[in-house]
Na(+)/H(+) antiporter subunit A
Amino acid sequence: MGPQSRWAASGFGWHNGQFPQKSALASPVLLERGAPFVKVRLGIVAKGLGLDTQTSIALAALAPFVAAVLAPAIHHLLGRLSGYVLALVPLGIFYVLLGFVDTIAAGNSVSVAIGWVPAYGLDLSFHLDGLSLVFALTISGIGALIVLYSGAYLAGHRHQGRFFAFILAFMGAMLGLVLADSLLALFLFWELTSVTSFLLIGFDHARQAARRAAIQALVITNIGGMALLAGAVLVHQLTGSWEMSAVRAMGQGLQEHALYGVVLALFVVAAFTKSAQVPLHFWLPNAMEAPTPVSAFLHSATMVQAGVYLLARMTPVLGGTTVWTMLLVGFGAVTLLWGALAAIKQTDLKQMLAQTTLASLGLLVLLIGLGSTYAIAAMMIYFVAHALYKAALFMVVGAIDHETGTRDITALGGLADKMPVSFIGAALAALSMVGLPLTVGYFAKEEMYLGVMGGDWQLIATLVVLVAGNALLAGVALLVMIRPFLGETVPTPKSAHEAPVAMLAGPILLGGLGVVAGVMPDGVGVLVAEPGGAAILGETVKTHLTLVLDIASPLLWLSALTWALGILVYRQADTMRTLLRRVDHKLGWNADKVFDAAMFGLIRFAGAVTRVLHHGRLELYLVAVFAAMGLALFVPMLTLNGLAWMSLPEELGQWSNKVGLGSLRIYEWGVVVLAVAGLVAVLLSRTRLVAILSLGVQGAALALIFLLFGAPDLAFTQLMVEVLAVVILTFVMTRLRLDDRDPRPFEDLARDGMLALFCGLGVALLLMQVLSGTLDTRLSDLFTATSVPIAHGHNIVNVILVDYRGFDTLGEISVVMGAGLAILALLRRRKKVDAAGKAAP
């Protein structure tokens, strides 16, 4: 008998001696694309609502954003009832998604594509399978309770309407992330979770700690967002598709490509930043500066689970290799133990739960890295178990803090008498976290142990890590359940009493659901583990979880060892906390301090660069601009042999004849002389006013040149611009307190003069080169042929400006408008300064 069949009996989770059989999945149910809506409907109807498939999925992905826009107005109108009303939105999404359970459980998947940018072949596509459905149901179901909880927790807060908007947008971003099939849509929703979490973590923006935590979370997760974007683009380049379902259908061919390592690194970095794997973990505990409803939602079903979802989703494409397994199992194991030990070190209940979230995320990543059918089934079950008990425990901690004024575990005790319902919710959730029988947490633990039984030393080491990590988590669960509620009553800052009903619904329902799922293991297997595992592995997964006790099962004894070690951790928690804090004190530095040092160094570097590049001296800015312009003119001509035509004097003469310099009439030469005279006058003028007028003379001469050579509309435009320029410059100069002259040292004059000659010569040589070549009339021919039939304009110049180059014209108008507003602001500011100076005496 092999090791797998030998250990098929799993205590309360008997598998009937059978392991999952591999077979081809049922074909996905794919909806045809419409413009913009889907044309072919499935016979699937959202339960009780009669909605077609596309409407149902679009509603699930986009409805929270609509609710977020309306939330402040709804709160303004309904006040304390707004939480109950807004909770109907995620509840409705949950109800709609339930309509897909039977179809997904049968092995089907549902795809919907809505035209997004059809010209580039981009669709806003959604894909519903076992993985995305489990995540979406968890997000929407817990989200409904979170919104309800927030209505009571933040009752009376002057920004509660804004908070509802943020939390609903956060929910919508996460739902869109798990439902998206397009890699670009996934990236869009991925970044939206970062932005909305930034707003939620920094909600109490008056506190510096909240602002710092929000910025830290945004910086770290955005690094992962950029890695995800690069990975998505690279996958598209290698596979030719943006759709993850299409990429997964290609199998593991990407692993054979030379760039597999780069793709893997980009997706792993994205996942590790979002799901807070060591050493990118430090932002997550600091996110506890957010209000408790945010912590409960973020740590159970939303943002931190995005990285886990990404790794699970990309397993068929990137998973199964040695480097994949080493990275995920290695970092997952370290994160599991790190977070579990860090939780023991804390006394703040929220921080304890936050650190256990780190441990749980490491555990999920480790299971994905193992990649076996049992490990993946355990991952799916543990995800649900963790979401249920973690959201419930955070809500209980929020209720304790709300009603007692503290969440320090050393300052709490005996609350069971005063908060009995909260204690029941905490007990139900904590028992699932411990992994006791008749809870869904038990089956998750059994499945993960089963996945590493009877293997080589690496699997044995992994088993040791799992037992140690689960024991530490069990000890923390006992601490959270027992210390605040049992024992001697401790005086608290506020007189303790039971929380409002809206704050109790979540812990009771979620804790109770963890027990209900524990006594209905068949449903957990059929509705969670099997469809989710099939979506991840691309093969049929069968589980046979039942409530059968086998005393002889090694898995049952491993569970007993875990519970015994958990009790030991609970009893020695104070000693362990002291030792761990001494170690911290000896080390001195941690990842959080490294981040602060890095940010401080970045700010100092940015300041130094700013002082060099943005020194405030306009003349140096202009020098840099024109120097760059001169290089842009000469470098291409020199490198591309563009000045070779000047080597022979006769060729220069041929160019002169070609452009018609020898055929100019006397009055045309007169206009040229006038332009040159204006230029000389500008250079020799001793006052600013004379320079402005001389510049106007040169501009007027240029307008005459346009007129003489057949461009009357351009000549008129040039003349109007010159008149306005002279008037405006004269007006501005007379209002500003400037000297009549602008004395400058000789070195500045030499520098500016050489730069002017450099740029002028470059422009002249470039124009001469262009005019010496053959005129390509394809573009002008296009304008001539299409200006009337397409743009309906006979004036080709106007058509070019308004239609063909409409955005260029808009940009030019915007620049002129911005310059005008800036000048107006300067003049008004100067006027106020003058008035203040006169009034001072």
